[in-house]
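REVIEWER CHECKLIST
Item 1: Sequence provided? yes
Item 2: Single chain? yes
Item 3: Sequence as submitted:
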Amino acid sequence: MNRVLLTNDDGIDAEGLAALETVARRFFDDVWVVAPAEQASQIGHRVTTDTPLRFEERGEQRYAVHGTPADCTRVALAHLLPSHPDWVWSGINHGGNLGRHDFVISGTVAAAREAAFFGVPAMSTSHYLKRELALCWETAADRIASAFCELRDEETGPGEFWNINLPHLAPDEPSPEFRFCDLEKQPLEVVFEADEEQALSYTGAYHDRPRVEGSDVAVCFSGDVAISRVSI
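Item 4: Structure as written out by the authors:
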């Protein structure tokens, strides 16, 4: 393996992307970063076709795109890279992308899915967050590296790619296992509260979401790394 494209939805300056880059340089000689110029989370697979897409160079083989995560993959594959990479990695997202509901909402997942449309091996990577715990990106990077070692020799069919979710563990908790699992089928609970002007604020609790034993939600929330083979 030689070339990898890195992208995300938290923006080119995100800590998760920097952590993912440290992992990529362990496995690839030729690393490209093409990521949104600004944060672009929870916009799904939106792409830009009716206005020009601006991009700017932020260093050697490093570009910020004024567009969506899926735009970044498109621009990289169609215009910036000399040829298609061996892999496209998206993330590490600041928050989980678990279950079918997140799968269609997430910009992180969309960036990897766009690569799958073109037959390029891809994985989206995310880190479930607990507000009361500090996040160690060095640990996250090590766990993504281990997850990649688990899956890289696994076969994927046309249109398939990988979705990885890291648990958020305290330093004194046991190291996670790496478990292959399916996406949770049950949707997130959608709850709103209305103010006096009937403006609605979302009040759903991500960590209280329903889950079936063995699903990616159950695996990640139980403290293990969830590795899911998913399809476009």
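Item 5: Key structural point noted by reviewer: The chain has a mean pLDDT of 95.
Item 6: Recommendation: ____
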